[in-house]
């Protein structure tokens, strides 16, 4: 069945589903009614559209297909009265009992490793469509449900079951079934359904739609039965199935809500919080509102402590339905790590900004003095609050709210009718936490970071010597009410601002390296920031500057280093290392437009990691430490915490660069640093910068962004002749760090050697320039010690064979699809497009070309390269929509898009995708000879492979075992046998990976 026929069948099935569901639900509804279509995108707000039922059902279906190209699509299970998706706007008529089971997560234990540390092995983000469908389908078959569902659908990660009723029910019936599911989740877990879907305003995934979360997955039918049920029959059967028992309330049970929390002064709770509580009590609070309320209680009960969440946990346990302490704790930790909230407001929890005292402070809003948490009656000293001064005219208190210090004046203290003490205050001034007056932050560029104090809409530079007089003048110039607080302003200035002054000037940096000829960071003068964790590899770096050496020692190291550098791979690594020391200088002065990352690929045990460890880590960092994947996960905070030195970060066997870090890494490729603002737990907004490019050794790396690939030098060690100098390696390993110390001590001298280095700084030459800079630096160092440096013989020849990129995945998909669709059998043999590249018989060649051209495809050979010609007419057989490629023309991002002349079709715009090199070299001639002798040597080789794999219980078998066996049997050398293996793979007899084991197809 073709894709067009399948789409028609799916459309008919979905149409039948919605007519079945809503025809019954709308029986007793005479007024206008609407179906809600809602689409969600992980990066944007939901799209909501409404279609009149039943007249606009076709429009609803067509629009859902359009939106599903980019977003996940859902429908409202209840018909709407108007264009709103709320419960009040929904008819109290529903004709289905839905059951939603998240099989992968809730049953099989899959999870997102980046968000949930609980799941250590099963990563839901990497599971494919076919894998997910197989797992879910197997689980569905194992279910022993009490009644057959009318409809059963695969949703990408789970199952949706629908029991169609012969007469509609209302909200009461839904809530009764919800109690049953909640009971099952708490006690037996035989259904494992989601209890949150039983609400009239709920939306569910549209059947057959693509699930866009993580890897895209297609919705499918699991089962359809032409049955309807009585509601009582369904719920009674499920009660027996789950051994349901009604929970009997104790006689002294009293329903409570949040307002019974006595520590909260509810008269001063912002309206946004009250509204959220009302929605929650009605059962209409979505996840964002739940997070919003959690943030509110965290703020009230924990303020700046940050770590203690026990009070908030106890509140949610007592006043929440279905309390799950583990999930709640994770959400609270998420809030503390990212301060994420529904409004993205730095002063959250605030939602209705028109009533927000912080948002309207400059407007003189009368509500600007909320004191949500009740204040204890006892007095507090200056020492206890650090910013409190008791004056003759009243009390002052300083409150820290998300990094902003607010100075409040107590204006009233009274006891209300309930015996509660109420404290009212007014705001006098606010300011961000100031830095030490004379503290000099180098932080990669010579900037003094100052903070300002705002009083009466006037800003005062607190670092100015005359700031105190400005301070007093501003206080005097205020509207009458402020003059009487002048004495208190004086105290504020002296005790809150001037207390931060220190006498000595402290120089602080987080990087060593060469910045310009006037500013060279020398370790004896500078120190790491105090917040930098002293992990072992950082301590090793500090120890480097306590090492003593003589120049004769360094001269001896350089001599042995010269003996070690016997191949281009080692020289490229060292040349890149030397250039990285001066990376900031070249980028900040715009001498080069790009400084690339370095990726060294190759098989295991080839020496790539050892070379990088010696020529980078030991040399410049005095360490063997290599980073793992964990540093690249999460929000990026861990990566930012490792920016303590201005040198590359070494990752060993990194498998993937997370998408959220791709933009950051690209930006530091073309800029000296990537600066972001992030809220820290200490209550301060800090500027965080990423300054370190990546140095990666791997045998298999996934890179999903082609622009990121363009910012990398990629060298495959397998393609280059290497020299084993193990004796020199061992001699250098414990001594080469002294050369690194000498380099730091002589940055000025080395810098002068490269300041006048001439080269083109444009991006096209960036990779060559980095190697050129490294050569010049090494030439200066070797010359200083009376040695000559022999540079690498050429610039790196990049090889992407061990790097998995989007174009590779799409190319593989296209080739597999074409070979699957363009093939025919003749005389017991199967022929496909690869036979056109060999000596195919005229009949075979004619048939294959006819099939190709009938689907808008062709094969052209130009300059010893065979190209697969792909026109827009071939889209339906390519199966590339799963890569979000909406049309053939989009492939021009990877390959040439130009006119091709196709026999019988004339000239057409087409993609020219490289298929295979067809140059008549020695290897190619051998491959043709093997092909011609397929009945003898290749057939015998395949028989031997099959026998060996069968002995191994049909498990994949090591390559070297099979090659040895075939070499002996055929009396051929290893090169010939590998050529035969490659032919067998091309003919789809075996799977012969570049790295790994061989398997029969």
For the structure shown, list the relevant keywords.
1001 residues, alpha+beta, DNA primase, PRIM domain, 6 domains, five-stranded antiparallel beta sheet, four-stranded antiparallel beta sheet, 32 helices, globular
- Radius of gyration based on Cα positions: 35 Å
* Strand composition percent: 15-25%
What would you call the structural class?
Answer: alpha+beta
General form: globular
Largest sheet: 5 strands, antiparallel
**Average pLDDT level:** 72
Layout of secondary structure:
Blueprint: H1 3-25, E1 34-40, E2 47-52, H2 57-67, E3 72-76, E4 94-101, H3 103-107, H4 129-142, E5 151-154, E6 159-169, H5 171-187, E7 203-205, E8 220-224, H6 231-242, H7 271-281, H8 287-302, H9 310-319, H10 325-338, H11 382-385, E9 396-401, E10 404-415, E11 421-432, E12 439-441, E13 452-455, E14 458-461, H12 467-476, H13 486-497, E15 506-508, E16 514-516, E17 519-520, H14 536-543, H15 551-564, H16 568-581, H17 583-588, E18 597-601, H18 608-621, H19 637-641, E19 649-652, H20 659-670, E20 674-679, E21 685-690, E22 694-698, E23 701-702, H21 706-709, E24 712-716, H22 726-733, H23 736-745, H24 747-755, H25 766-784, E25 803-804, H26 806-821, E26 824-826, E27 829-831, H27 842-854, E28 857-862, E29 865-870, H28 875-878, E30 896-902, E31 906-917, H29 922-932, H30 934-951, E32 957-958, H31 959-970, H32 974-986, E33 990-991, E34 997-1000
Parallel strand pairs: 12-15, 18-22, 18-24, 19-22, 23-25
Antiparallel strand pairs: 1-2, 1-3, 3-7, 4-6, 5-6, 5-8, 9-10, 10-11, 11-13, 13-14, 16-17, 20-21, 26-27, 28-29, 29-31, 30-31, 32-34, 33-34
Helix pairs in contact: 5-6, 7-8, 12-13, 15-22, 15-23, 16-18, 16-25, 18-23, 24-25, 29-32, 30-31, 30-32
């Amino acid at each position: 069945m073709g894709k067009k026929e399948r789409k028609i069948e799916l459309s008919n099935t979905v149409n039948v589903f919605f007519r079945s569901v809503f025809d019954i639900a709308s029986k007793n509804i005479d007024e206008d009614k609407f179906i809600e279509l809602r689409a969600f995108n992980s990066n944007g707000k939901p799209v909501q559209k409404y279609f009149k039922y039943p007249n606009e059902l076709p429009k609803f279906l067509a629009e859902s297909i359009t939106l599903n190209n980019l977003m996940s699509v859902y429908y409202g299970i209840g018909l709407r009265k108007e264009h709103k998706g709320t419960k009040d706007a929904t008819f109290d008529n529903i004709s289905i009992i839905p059951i939603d089971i998240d099989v992968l997560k809730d049953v099989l234990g899959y999870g997102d490793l980046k968000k949930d540390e609980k799941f250590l092995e099963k990563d839901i983000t990497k599971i494919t469509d076919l894998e997910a469908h197989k797992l879910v389908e197997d689980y569905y078959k194992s279910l022993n449900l009490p009644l057959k569902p009318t409809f059963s659908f695969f949703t990408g990660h789970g199952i949706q079951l629908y029991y169609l009723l012969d007469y509609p029910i209302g909200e009461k019936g839904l809530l009764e079934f919800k109690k049953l599911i909640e009971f099952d989740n708490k006690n037996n877990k035989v259904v494992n359904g989601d209890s949150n879907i039983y609400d009239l305003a709920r939306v569910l995934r549209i059947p057959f739609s693509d699930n866009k979360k993580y890897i895209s997955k297609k919705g499918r039918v699991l089962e359809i039965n032409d049955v309807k049920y009585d509601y009582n029959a369904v719920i009674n059967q499920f009660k027996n199935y789950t051994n349901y028992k009604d929970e009997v309330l104790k006689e002294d049970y009293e329903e409570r809500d949040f307002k019974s929390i006595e520590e909260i002064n509810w008269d001063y709770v912002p309206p946004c919080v009250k509204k959220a509580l009302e929605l929650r009590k009605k059962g209409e609070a979505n996840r964002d509102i739940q997070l919003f309320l959690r943030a509110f209680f965290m703020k009230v009960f924990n303020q700046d402590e940050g770590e203690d969440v026990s009070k908030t946990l106890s509140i949610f346990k007592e006043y929440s339905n279905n309390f799950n302490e583990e999930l709640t704790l994770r959400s609270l930790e998420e809030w503390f790590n990212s301060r994420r909230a529904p409004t993205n407001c730095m002063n959250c929890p605030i939602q209705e900004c028109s009533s927000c005292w912080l948002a309207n402070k400059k407007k003189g809003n009368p509500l600007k003095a909320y004191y949500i948490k009740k204040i204890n009656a006892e007095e507090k000293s200056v020492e206890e609050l650090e910013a409190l001064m008791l004056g003759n005219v009243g009390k002052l208190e300083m409150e820290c709210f998300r990094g902003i210090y607010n100075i409040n004046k107590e204006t009233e203290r009274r006891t209300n009718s309930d015996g509660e003490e109420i404290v009212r205050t007014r705001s006098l001034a606010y300011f961000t936490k100031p830095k030490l007056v004379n503290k000099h932050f180098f932080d990669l560029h010579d900037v003094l970071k100052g903070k300002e104090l705002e009083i009466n809409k006037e800003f005062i530079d607190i670092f100015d010597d005359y700031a105190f007089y400005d301070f007093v003048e501003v206080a005097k110039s205020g509207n009458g009410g402020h003059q009487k607080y002048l004495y208190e302003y004086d105290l504020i200035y002296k005790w809150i601002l001037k207390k931060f002054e220190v006498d000595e000037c402290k120089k602080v940096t987080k990087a060593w390296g060469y910045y310009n000829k006037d500013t060279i960071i020398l370790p004896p003068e500078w120190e790491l920031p105090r917040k930098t964790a002293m992990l072992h590899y950082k301590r090793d770096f500090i120890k480097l500057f306590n090492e003593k050496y003589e120049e004769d020692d360094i001269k001896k190291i350089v001599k042995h280093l010269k003996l070690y550098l016997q191949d281009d791979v080692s020289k490229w690594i060292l040349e890149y290392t030397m250039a990285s020391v001066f990376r900031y200088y070249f980028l900040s002065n715009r001498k080069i437009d790009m400084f690339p990352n370095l990726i060294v690929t190759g098989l295991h045990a080839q020496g790539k990691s050892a070379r990088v460890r010696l020529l980078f880590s030991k040399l410049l960092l005095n360490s063997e430490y290599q980073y793992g994947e964990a540093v690249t996960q999460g929000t990026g905070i861990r990566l930012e915490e490792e920016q303590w030195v201005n040198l590359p970060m070494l990752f060993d066997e990194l498998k993937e660069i997370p998408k959220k870090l791709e933009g950051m890494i690209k930006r530091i490729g073309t800029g000296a640093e990537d600066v972001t603002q992030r809220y820290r737990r200490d209550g301060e907004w800090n500027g965080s910068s990423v300054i370190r490019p990546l140095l990666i050794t791997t045998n298999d790396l996934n890179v999903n962004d082609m622009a990121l690939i363009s910012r990398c030098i990629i060298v495959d060690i397998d393609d280059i002749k290497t020299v084993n100098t193990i004796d020199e390696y061992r001699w250098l390993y414990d001594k080469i760090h002294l050369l690194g110390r000498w380099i730091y001590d002589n940055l000025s001298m080395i810098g002068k050697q490269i300041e006048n280095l001439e080269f083109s700084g444009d991006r096209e030459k960036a990779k060559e320039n980095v190697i050129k800079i490294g050569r010049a630096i090494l030439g200066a160092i070797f010359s200083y010690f009376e040695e000559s440096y022999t540079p690498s013989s050429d610039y790196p020849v990049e090889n992407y064979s061990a790097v998995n990129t989007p174009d590779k995945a799409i190319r593989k998909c296209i080739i597999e699809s074409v070979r699957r669709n363009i093939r025919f059998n003749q005389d017991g043999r199967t022929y496909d497009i690869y036979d056109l590249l060999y000596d195919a018989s005229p009949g075979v060649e004619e048939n294959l070309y006819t099939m190709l051209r009938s689907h808008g495809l062709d094969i052209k050979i130009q300059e010893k390269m065979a190209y697969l010609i792909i026109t827009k007419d071939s889209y339906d057989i390519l199966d590339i929509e799963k890569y979000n490629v909406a049309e053939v023309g989009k492939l021009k991002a990877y390959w040439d898009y130009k006119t091709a002349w196709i026999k019988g079709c004339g000239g057409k715009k087409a993609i020219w995708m490289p298929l295979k090199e067809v140059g008549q070299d020695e290897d190619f001639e051998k491959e043709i000879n093997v092909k011609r002798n397929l009945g003898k040597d290749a057939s015998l080789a395949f028989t031997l492979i099959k026998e060996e794999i069968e002995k191994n219980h049909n498990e994949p078998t090591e390559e070297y075992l099979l090659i040895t066996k075939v070499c002996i049997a055929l009396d051929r050398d290893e090169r010939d046998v590998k050529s035969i293996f490659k032919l067998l793979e091309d003919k789809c007899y075996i799977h012969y990976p570049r790295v790994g084991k061989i398997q029969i197809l």
